[in-house]
Amino acid sequence: MKIIVDAFGGDHAPLEILKGAADAKKEYGVDIIFTGDSEKIRACASENNIDITGCEILDASQVMQMEDEPNLILKVKRDSSMGVGLDALAAGKGDAFVSAGSTAALVVGGTFIVKRIKGIKRCAIASVMPSDKGPFMLIDCGANVECKPAFLAQFAQMGSIYMGKVLGIGRPRVGLANIGVEETKGTPFVRESYALLQEERSINFIGNAEVRDIANGVADVIVADGFTGNVILKMYEGVAGMLVGNIKKMFKKNIFSMLGYLLVKGGMNEFKGKMDYKQYGGAPLLGLTAPVIKAHGSSDARAFKNAIRQAKDCCENQVVATIAAGLHTDDAAEDCM
Amino acid sequence: MKIIVDAFGGDHAPLEILKGAADAKKEYGVDIIFTGDSEKIRACASENNIDITGCEILDASQVMQMEDEPNLILKVKRDSSMGVGLDALAAGKGDAFVSAGSTAALVVGGTFIVKRIKGIKRCAIASVMPSDKGPFMLIDCGANVECKPAFLAQFAQMGSIYMGKVLGIGRPRVGLANIGVEETKGTPFVRESYALLQEERSINFIGNAEVRDIANGVADVIVADGFTGNVILKMYEGVAGMLVGNIKKMFKKNIFSMLGYLLVKGGMNEFKGKMDYKQYGGAPLLGLTAPVIKAHGSSDARAFKNAIRQAKDCCENQVVATIAAGLHTDDAAEDCM
Q1: Yes or no: is domain A1-123+287-337 CATH 3.40.50.2000?
Q2: Which residues of A touch B274 (CB under 8 A)?
Q3: Confidence (pTM)
Q4: How many CB pairs (< 8 A) connect A and B?
């Protein structure tokens, strides 16, 4: 299996990307194709003793920057590490693509270079996140700030397939993110989405997922429009970050509190393990004709390695083929981007 | 000053309500008018040695239940503790009304019994919440799931007035809840709201408040439509609750972890104090002709006492009059509910 890796995406590229990819090659037995400036890749690998023997490199003269207009990926910056990677994936040179670069550019590039599965109205960013009761998927996390209810019905199907195939959850519980459990709650858009999800036989729809209960693991797949999904994702990250920062400060306060930390270290590590989003890899872009994984921008080697494992899992479990086979395509023609 | 108190709202009514009100009377020197079944109020007070001497009671034969259709407050359940309280406030029998009962019913009752200030398009639920850098106001927290940009401009003005007058914050920084800081981010609704807020001279608009930074205290007033605001509020509560629950579990694990807790107790209490939402009281309904405070449904005596202090602060600082004086009323006629 060949995984194409954007060597110049994310805050710690190329060093952590190369490290993570080399580890993944060793650990999971995948082949790696790097995209990016080949001289810089080789120099970084040799300076840091990273073994990239046997890894192919597809040269790319540019890098998509975080502040770049996402559409640049299609023409002006097509020769970027991300653009070259997406082109290679579309041409079948590899089985999946992993990048820690700009999410928006990856969505645009994925949609127009790799292209959507026939019948898929929109591709979605699907984050696997920790909850009190294990991982859940939040879909869409921000690819589509404006949605139609029919998009959400497809997000629910794609999310269910992923959680079933990749995480092995039987009949994943699908909940619609809403401000209450009653079906009368929310905006007209949310209520219409509810009605559509309820009709969808292929999923295990459990109704509205009260937002307050999401972190407690109320559902395996949380469906939302990209604006709401992004708000949920960022509130989760923001509140958790703030609280954890305060807890750390509390333990570092004085010699007694540091001793206190030693006494709870075991439980703390267990808790950290449960909440460690890096273990799940990145966020798959679901709905494309080949697996594309968005690794977190702040990915270190371990997080990036896990994103590659996730790409491998997507391939092995035929997530794309299952989505393509399972979707209702009777209304494929309408609503194309 | 006379504060009207719904003695039968919330999970711990009437006991905690009576206790909190009696404490507020003593501590803040306010007069209390209870609404609800007078026999039950007197019996509960005497059984629990709560001194309600000098408190007036307005009899009410009914109670608005959480599952009641909010509109019932207007006719079928007008003789409820909440309905009688709102009628008493509208008739000028008291200066403010505090209830821990159904938020939706309070919004409907507030709007149609107490009524909106002339020129106000919608009243809003405005929660004062803790952040890493002190309290901030989130407005609207759910009164209006669908909004027009003009509503948000008024929410921003009302929130600024409250934070300035009641919490003494000079030129409160107003941020629009959004999924990025750039003004091109978000839905068309959010972008239109941005443009309108930018034109609003009476507020200190600092642009988009990236949702990830809200818990860090990025602004003093966070403006959002009621759906998004409610998602923010509930993600905050849900994530904080889940994390704190896990931290507690960690400390209770064994004898060493319990000892560890003792060593960090000081820092823990400091942190708890910072994050204690009960200190801020409840959520004012802004935009009505008299102060109405929604206390948290789970309010204990202390939280309810603080909600009464908040009502007193609203009166003393003339929040209603300031809102009425400060608003642009040229478009008062349009968009009435």
Answers
A1: no
A2: 246
A3: 0.93
A4: 172
